[in-house]
Design goal:
Elements: E1 2-6, H1 11-14, H2 17-26, E2 31-34, H3 42-49, E3 55-59, H4 77-80, E4 86-95, H5 103-120, E5 124-129, H6 132-140, E6 149-151, H7 158-166, E7 170-173, H8 183-189, E8 197-199, H9 221-231, H10 236-250
Parallel strand pairs: 1-2, 2-3, 3-4, 4-5, 5-6, 6-7, 7-8
């Protein structure tokens, strides 16, 4: 199975990196996509993972890091996106949970990521928090560009799910789905077609049950997969095969036959 979204360069994971990888192997994790959140961290992030065939990177600036002085230009993507390890753009999007002070700048940076996705033919990884309308309104402007994208750590409304399905966008389900208080999310995704779903940890955050409260890591995606296999009434093997195929259908630059 594949962890389609984590942050291996965050201290909680980077300081224990080799054990993190070994734990992933033990839990049958075959590929990992580690998400870059700041271009200034990219080289160190790349050096951390470069010796592992099926650990990949994205390139982008997280909306939480966007302000008047910290933005990104289209040309900033050109060198990174040529690297064989870089298979996606982001994470990007709009986050209005903490503040709306930089909505204009977040919108500009989000649009730059979309343009980079189109230019480099790499899928877009979207972060959405208290910003469904704003993100949907922007994406509607790019409908003719056949964007490939995923809403990571999906916790959106039924309307957002329908918008994704109408446009052949993917959603990624995190350990949140296993939480006792996530009944509304379970109700929203219960009819989602399986060919639209990926799984992720978003580690070091959001550890699933039964690991809730611990530092999350890619190996814990196993628990989310087991939960969702039961939820969708599939064997774990069937669910793994479907979500692995979805990963490679979206992230076409990743290599199927590589393993950790």
């Amino acid at each position: 199975m594949i962890d389609s979204h984590c942050h291996l360069n965050f201290n909680e994971l980077a300081e224990n990196f080799h054990n993190i990888i070994n734990n992933s192997k033990l839990n049958n994790i075959t590929s990992i996509l580690s998400i870059n959140t700041d271009p200034e961290d990219f080289e160190d992030h790349l050096n951390l993972i470069k010796n592992y065939n099926s650990v990949y990177l994205s390139y982008g600036l997280h909306p939480d890091k966007v302000d008047t002085f910290n933005q990104i230009q289209l040309q900033n993507f050109d060198i990174a996106c040529k690297n064989e390890k870089v298979i996606g753009i982001g994470e990007t999007g709009i986050d209005l949970y903490h503040s709306q002070n930089h909505l204009k700048e977040q919108t500009q940076v989000f649009e730059t990521h979309i343009e980079a996705s189109i230019k480099h033919s790499l899928p877009l990884i979207i972060h959405q928090r208290n910003s469904e309308k704003e993100i949907v309104d922007i994406l509607k402007n790019y409908k003719s560009n056949n964007l490939k994208l995923i809403f990571h750590c999906f916790t959106g409304s039924k309307q957002l799910l329908n918008f994704c399905l109408e446009n052949n966008y993917y959603i990624s389900i995190s350990g949140i789905i296993t939480f006792k208080n996530a009944s509304s999310l379970r109700d929203i995704i219960k009819d989602a077609p399986l060919d639209s779903i990926l799984i992720e940890t978003d580690s070091p955050f959001l550890a699933p049950e039964p690991m809730r409260g611990k530092v999350n890591e890619p190996s814990f995606v196993k628990y989310t997969a087991e939960y969702l296999a039961k939820f969708f009434k599939l064997s774990l093997e069937e669910f793994e095969k479907i979500t692995d195929n979805n990963f490679f259908n979206l992230f076409t630059k990743a290599k199927r036959d590589n393993y950790l």
